[in-house]
Design goal:
transferase; Nucleotidyltransferase, domain 5; nucleotidyltransferase; DPOD/Z_N; alpha+beta; transmembrane; 6-stranded mixed beta sheet; 2 domains; 671 residues; 7-stranded mixed beta sheet; DNA-directed DNA polymerase activity; globular
Length: 671
């Protein structure tokens, strides 16, 4: 590419809105286990032309049911093990990153790097490291020889991505935490029976995981005293077996074996109800280590090591044991926000007349990028990448390229150098990001989809269907960008506000009092095929489409609100957009249960979504015109009030079998 510098004497950057982008001149011109297989997305657009800026479906509009295999309940939580080697490209493909690198472009992009690390962090581990965690996932790799000298073979490694107070990026690899669940211990089970049970279970696991390289599937079986949260229990505790397995996905296969039945020595064949066997591995780790979404984590001096094999692009890549992590409650100094880097971007495509852009045919002609530090009023990077020449724009770094390939690779390099923590935009999860990935595939740019923080790990895109009782059925795309949170403002708007239209124009007019630039989609190709001045007009339009989501994010305080919601509910920030309400409730239940030594059963069919329940009484409204105002009355917190008034809880529900046994016992005692 041949990036053109912005002239200091360029014409002013004029916009038709009251706030002309508020852009003053710049002062210095792995799939990795993500805690679940499926993510939510925005509802399907009513027509192809609405895909970029969709309108809402009419209330009650019927939607065709998806195939049963594709439907995903919000509570259907499944881990997905991805081995570390599977996320790495072949060396010859990785070497392509070094080819055709434009040095002038590299020099311009390097100005936007993060601040350099202090010398003591570069050289050793003599000081503690505190960072605000933004994303948590896990990957399967080899056991750490120094931290786990008695372990070998594949193990789950938790990865925590975050940012320090100074703005340095961190990838913390946590070792030693193992997946587990509980079953109720049968009466009369002796220590010898437990040992035989473990051997039998190990044999059954080997049989059902024949292709696995794991040497030992069942790591341990331990007898513990706990109490189930279900039903009133006159006895304070009972015996449970804690079963620890080698990898997170083996929890599900082990659960299946136990539910179908297994032979236990002299006790014969028994089937088991499992407890806490449907908890996502990342969430299990957070609960056990008292970590909540968006809180600060500290690695004490001397308790961590610099990674010997650097796998990420983060400035600090550290290894530690899970037991050495210090999780700070979000209070006082630790309630503050790290200076997250937020990238807002938008793409424009040259569609054919009468057709919505398709990545198989239509090129990406412009990409606008605004990079902002969390808490700052203005972006510190204002950039637009254009195909063919573009007249300068005051306060904006304009980069023009000869080919579409150059644009895509320059955008990838911008992501690498600027290293955003959060990527935002409007409908980016369903349109912009998948379009860029698919377009690169069409152009055979194999080195493009390396946008995450893990070295040479491809971004993965797949179609998903999400079903939630609150949000209904949604079809979207799951885009995995490791180590970076994607925050789609369209999804957030649809979840949090009831509006007549969810187009960017309507939402911006409603909340900001300003709208997009006056460029109709039908003339985008004509502007691109014109001259540098017409492409400048298109660039201003594209920049405004990247700027409005950032303004909405700031105006509605989305980052603050979502971080605080993650802290209150205890789930990762990414869950708040990708999942429904049940995961938030489950997370809080599990935390309280852990405090009180309770376990939560995994009851079959509890998340099927097929059961219906009679709701509250709804009186039909008498439609008509009323000259006098109509008073609307409603109960405040009706259901919680009923629960408290009648002491309704899992643990106060009396089991009818237990009740009969208690009555018989009382009768016998009376006699």
């Amino acid at each position: 590419g041949n990036p053109n510098s912005t002239s200091p004497r360029s014409p002013p950057f004029r916009l038709s809105s009251p706030h002309p982008l508020s852009l003053p001149p710049s002062p210095a011109m792995s799939s990795v286990g993500r805690g679940g297989k499926r993510r939510a997305g925005p509802p399907a657009a009513p027509s192809p032309l609405a895909a970029k800026r969709p309108q809402p479906m009419p209330p009650g509009a019927p939607q065709p049911p998806p195939p049963a295999a594709a439907a995903a309940e919000e509570e259907d939580m499944m881990d997905e093990d991805v081995f570390l080697d599977e996320t790495i490209l072949a060396e010859d493909e990785a070497a392509l990153l070094l080819l055709d690198r434009d040095e002038a472009l590299a020099s311009r992009l390097s100005r936007w790097k993060r601040p350099a690390l202090p010398a003591d962090l570069v050289s050793g581990c003599s000081r503690s490291v505190a960072f605000q965690q933004l994303d948590i996932d896990y990957v399967i790799g080899e056991s750490h020889k120094e931290f786990l000298p008695n372990s070998s073979g594949p193990a789950a490694i938790i990865r925590i991505f975050g940012v320090t107070r100074e703005g340095h990026s961190v990838c913390c690899q946590v070792h030693g935490f193992e997946p587990y669940f509980y079953i109720s211990c049968p009466p009369g089970m002796s220590p010898d029976d437990i040992s035989g049970f473990k051997q039998t279970l190990e044999a059954r696991m080997k049989e059902s995981n024949r292709n696995s390289s794991v040497q030992r599937f069942v790591k341990s079986v331990e007898l513990l005293q706990k109490q189930t949260i279900m039903h009133y229990q006159p006895n304070k505790s009972q015996s449970f077996l804690k079963i620890v397995v080698a990898l997170p996905t083996m929890v599900a296969s082990c659960r299946g074996i136990l539910e179908r039945g297994i032979t236990i020595g002299s006790l014969g064949s028994k089937s088991f109800l499992t407890y806490e066997s449907n908890i996502l591995f990342a969430l299990r780790f957070m609960i056990d280590c008292n970590i909540v979404g968006g809180n600060w984590i500290e690695l004490p001096a001397g308790k961590y090591r610099k990674a010997t094999r650097v796998m990420s692009y983060c400035q600090l890549e550290l290894d530690c044991l899970y037991s050495d992590l210090v999780s700070h409650a979000p209070e006082g100094e630790y309630s503050k926000m790290a200076p997250f880097r937020i990238l807002s971007f938008d793409i424009e495509c040259a569609g054919r007349k009468g057709h919505f852009p398709e990545p198989t045919h239509d090129p990406v002609i412009q990409i606008a990028n605004l990079l902002t530090l969390q808490g700052e009023a203005q972006p510190f990077v204002r950039n637009v990448m254009t195909l063919k020449s573009c007249s300068p724009i005051v306060g904006v770094d304009v980069m023009s390229f000869d080919t579409e390939r150059d644009i895509l690779l320059a955008w990838r390099d911008l992501i690498r150098e600027a290293d955003p923590d959060i990527i935002i935009g409007y409908n980016i999860c369903k349109f912009d990001l998948p379009y860029l990935i698919e377009r690169a595939e069409v152009l055979k740019i194999v080195e493009f989809p390396l946008l995450g923080r893990i070295r040479n790990s491809r971004v993965r895109v797949r179609d998903t269907t999400f079903n939630s009782r609150q949000y209904g059925m949604r079809e979207s795309k799951d885009v995995t960008v490791e180590g970076r949170v994607q925050f789609d403002l369209l999804q957030a708007m649809q979840r949090d506000y009831k509006l007549s239209s969810y187009s960017l124009n309507s939402v911006s007019a409603h909340f900001l009092g300003e709208q997009k630039e006056d460029v109709h989609h039908s003339i985008i190709s004509d502007l691109q095929n014109g001259n540098s001045e017409t492409r400048r007009r298109l660039a201003v339009y594209c920049l405004k489409d990247a700027y409005l989501p950032q303004r909405l994010l700031d105006k509605l305080m989305y980052i603050y609100n979502y971080v605080e919601m993650a802290r209150v509910t205890g789930v990762p920030i990414s869950f708040l957009l990708s999942r429904g309400q049940s995961i938030k409730v489950l997370s809080q239940l599990l935390r309280k249960a852990k405090q009180r030594n309770l376990v939560i059963p995994n009851i079959k069919g509890q998340s099927s979504g097929q059961d219906t329940f009679e709701g509250a009484t709804v009186l039909e409204a008498r439609a008509g015109f009323y000259e006098k105002p109509i008073a609307t009355l409603d109960f405040a917190s009706l259901y919680p009030s009923i629960m408290m008034a009648h002491n309704l809880c899992y643990c106060t529900l009396v089991n009818i079998i237990l009740l009969i046994a208690m009555l018989i016992s009382e009768k016998n005692n009376a006699v």
